[in-house]
Amino acid sequence: MIFLLLAIIVIQLIIMLWLVVKDEPSPTKAEKISLNNAAQVATFYNETTNKFLEVYGEIIQAFRTNDVSVYLNYTIQNAELKDGQKILDAGCGVGGPACYFASRLNVEIEGITISTVQVEKSKEIIAAKDLKGKVNIQQGDYHRIDKIYGKENFDRILFLESFGHSDNKPLLIEKCFSALKPGGILYIKDLFVREHPNAEDGKKIDRIVDEINKAYCYHVADLHEVLATLRRLNFILLFIKTPEVKTGEFEHLSISNDFQNLFDIAKIISWEDYVFPIDFYEIKVMKPPFDLNEQKYLYFLNRPEVNEK
Ligand SMILES: C[S@@+](CC[C@H](N)C(=O)[O-])C[C@H]1O[C@@H](n2cnc3c(N)ncnc32)[C@H](O)[C@@H]1O
């Protein structure tokens, strides 16, 4: 009798274990390589988030306005965030931007960050806000968003100075394509390596970018690679531009200098040999609203809002 009971318990345990394991899809080879990098980024933010909060506050972005809400309103406008949308904030930090958007719009925002420390902080931040919409933040690797959230789930996917942490941007963009609804928009605001104006400055640019990458666990993006991937996937290019902020309102990246000087992270020792190494761009692309392989006669996008104008 006792053996029968033990056997039943063991079988139940095996079934429970199997149920847990079967729901966790195993990573592909490319995802596994990125997992390694993501673990380093997680350690970086687990160790530095308090420092970022001290200098940057809840919005961890270097390109911003003196009054950061001006920049966030600009983001709402340019990423076309609207009531009723389901939005993914990929690399959401402590949830500052997501909470700002949800305080103005009736949206449902999922935030994903690789850092457990940021998830904990975000809980306090969300609880302290009066939100119109909903914000839900979880720990995870954005290279796996299709598996975490499912396919064709989001109207918008945002990367607000978080995209450059990826060591496999083609894979990441493919995941975004899969997780976006047809007609959904991918919006990336980040830094990109500057084109070499000449060989001498080129060497300096590469050296300084290397220092940024090492200090921030970054892989400053190559615009050529990003564009090639977006176009290969048939994303519809809506715009690429330098963020348009008024000179008087622009913070002139002073916050990143303050941060670097205070904590001795990528501190610029001498300005003599310095060449500005990066460009800030906003990239906005749309997943075609129709299947290009099935509706081959359709070329241009069918955007109701645009067609109405
Ligand atoms: C510079 S912070 C920007 C945070 C936020 N977008 C903001 O504006 O406050 C970069 C963010 O990217 C996240 N990140 C980097 N790599 C990630 C990955 N593989 N998966 C998920 N989040 C990642 C970090 O955890 C961090 O929250």
Topology:
Elements lengths: L1 H21 L6 H28 L11 H11 L7 E5 L5 H9 L3 E6 L2 H12 L6 E6 L5 H5 L4 E7 L8 H11 E14 L5 H18 L6 H10 L3 E6 L12 H10 L14 E9 L17 H5 L1
Parallel strand pairs: 1-2, 1-4, 2-3, 4-5
Antiparallel strand pairs: 5-7, 6-7
Bound molecules: S-adenosylmethionine.
Q: On the 0-100 scale, what is the average pLDDT?
A: 89
The unique ligands bound to this protein are: S-adenosylmethionine
Find the structural class using helix and strand composition.
alpha/beta
Order of helices and strands: HHHEHEHEHEHEHHEHEH
CATH architecture: 3-Layer(aba) Sandwich
CATH topology call: Rossmann fold
Q: End-to-end distance, in Å?
A: 78 Å
Number of helices: 11
Low-pLDDT ranges: 19-24
Name the CATH superfamily classification.
Answer: Vaccinia Virus protein VP39
Strand content: 15-25%
Structural account:
With 309 residues, this protein is an alpha/beta fold. It has one domain (30-308): 3-Layer(aba) Sandwich (Rossmann fold). The protein is 45% helix and 17% strand. α2 packs across α10. The structure holds S-adenosylmethionine (SAM). S-adenosylmethionine (SAM) binds next to α2, α4 and β2. S-adenosylmethionine (SAM) is lined by residues 38, 41, 45, 59-61, 91-93, 96-97, 112-115, 118, 141-143, 160-162, 165.
Write a brief caption for the model.
It contains eleven helices and seven strands. The protein is an alpha/beta fold and 309 residues long. It has a single domain, classed as Vaccinia Virus protein VP39 (Rossmann fold), CATH 3.40.50.150.
